[in-house]
Amino acid sequence: MDPIIEGFKKAFALILAMDRELIGIIFLSIKVSGFALLIGSILGIPAGAFIGLKRFPLRSIAISLLNTLMGLPPVVVGLFVYLLLSRSGPLGFMGLLYTPSAMVIAQTILALPIVASLSNSAIVSVDPIVKQASVTLGATPSQVTMTIIKEARYGIMSGVIAALGRVMAEVGAILIVGGNIAGYTRVMTTTIALETDKGNFELALALGIILLFISLAINLLLHLIQKKGIVQAGRWG
Amino acid sequence: MKLSALNLWKAYNGNTAVKNCSYSFEPGKIYTLMGPNGCGKSTFLRLCALLEEPDAGEINYFSNNNALKKDVELRRKITLVLPKVGAFNATVFKNAAYGLKIRGLRKKDIEEKVEKILEFVGLTDKKRHNALTLSSGETQRLGIARALVIEPEIIFLDEPTASIDEKNTGIVEEIILKINKQKGTTIIMATHDVSQAKRLAGNILLMREGTFLA
């Protein structure tokens, strides 16, 4: 029990001292996951909206594909991006392997299907009467689309937050494509994996605690959004 | 603006909802479409409001005897209040402002008009509330406010009081009579309540099994 308690004590000391290495790792994690989420949302929300609003051949296959991709194992994504970016790969000339950009690409691939799929579900579940109401009030087709997306905003936001939770916590993909280079591509999860291997539990625990808090904050936010959106279920007319 | 429905037919999955219906609606009048549930009133209103295309027949709108093009501009002069309002998950104010916002009105004008209309339907004190938290009667009044704020020339109302209490029914009827009198808005309303049709004292059209009774 002692090493664990000792580890926690040192971990809190590191957090309280605002250790520079620790802060650097946290910021890189937030930066990489933040960018991945941003790109994933910019691509995923319109993709989800398109699938939710348009009827086209193979639509149900597209939905099934998205749902499958939601559960993509991060290591598989890591391997795929590695093969793409490695020197002999099709995008090797860009020299992105073992850079934060490669990590953003890998996490974007993880985030995108979650954002798209949950946006699609949110849009599909908007009461059809809302669409009719906007038409009767004189909305043009693009205004109707915007109204439906706006109406689904809480569900879409839940999707974005869920994707953030996934990319912040994943380790497999970024470890493969980022290489876990200290001060350059080392983020919270990869540091925890490495430091645990080395038996250096203080830093691993400190990051674990912070990761848990971030995860808690994300989930609280998700809960708040869902609570705000729940009013929809009680609609009168 | 005059509305003419000529030999309208509409069927859903082989079931004919509207059979050969024709009628001319004069501007500024009140019309109540009466008949039992499922007799085709809603379908007729939806066809007239250009929400659906008839299988056969024609809908035409005239201004000074000139037929109007069925474009966005015309659609924005008419509106249908649905039996289930379809309030947006936003404040009462934003709901009422919707029609003006999509028409690109200035913020100041929108505020002015919305304040006025909310007062008209008695929802001023609820303007900051989420529309989905309103009672059914208030929601119905919001549906009417949302339609009135765009100052339509013709307003179609599909059973606007079917799911609300007596007090709110009275308020809604009062609003309908007031807009007809003050603004000269043509009212075309579906109801299955005989006494309501009498209270509104307009032209009564009887409908049964998809056709108008002479």
Short description:
The complex is a heterodimer of chains A (237) and B (214). With 237 residues, chain A is an all-alpha fold.
Low-pLDDT residue intervals, each spanning 5 or more residues of chain B: none
The helix content of chain B is 25-40%
CATH architecture of chain A: Orthogonal Bundle
CATH topology of chain B: Rossmann fold
Q: What is the CATH architecture assignment of chain B?
A: 3-Layer(aba) Sandwich
Structural domain count of chain A: 1
Describe the structure.
- The complex is a heterodimer of chains A (237) and B (214).
- Chain A is mainly α.
- Chain A has a single domain (2-229), classed as MetI-like (MetI-like fold, Orthogonal Bundle).
- Chain A has helices at residues 2-16, 20-53, 59-70, 74-85, 100-124, 128-136, 141-151, 153-169, 172-178, 188-198, 201-229.
- Chain B is α/β, with parallel strands linked by helices.
- The interface between A and B is medium-sized, with 24 and 33 residues.
Describe the secondary-structure layout.
The complex is a heterodimer of chains A (237) and B (214).
Chain A (H helix, E strand, L loop, with lengths): L1 H15 L3 H34 L5 H12 L3 H12 L14 H25 L3 H9 L4 H11 L1 H17 L2 H7 L9 H11 L2 H29 L8
Helix pairs in contact in A: 1-11, 2-5, 2-8, 3-5, 4-5, 4-9, 5-8, 5-9, 6-7, 8-11, 10-11
Chain B lengths: L1 E11 L2 E11 L4 E5 L6 H8 L7 E8 L2 E2 L4 H4 L2 E4 L10 H10 L5 H14 L15 H13 L5 E5 L7 H18 L2 E6 L2 H7 L2 E6 L2 E3 L1
Characteristics:
heterodimer; A: mainly alpha; MetI-like fold; B: alpha/beta; Rossmann fold; four-stranded antiparallel sheet; 7 helices; 10 strands; 29% strand; globular
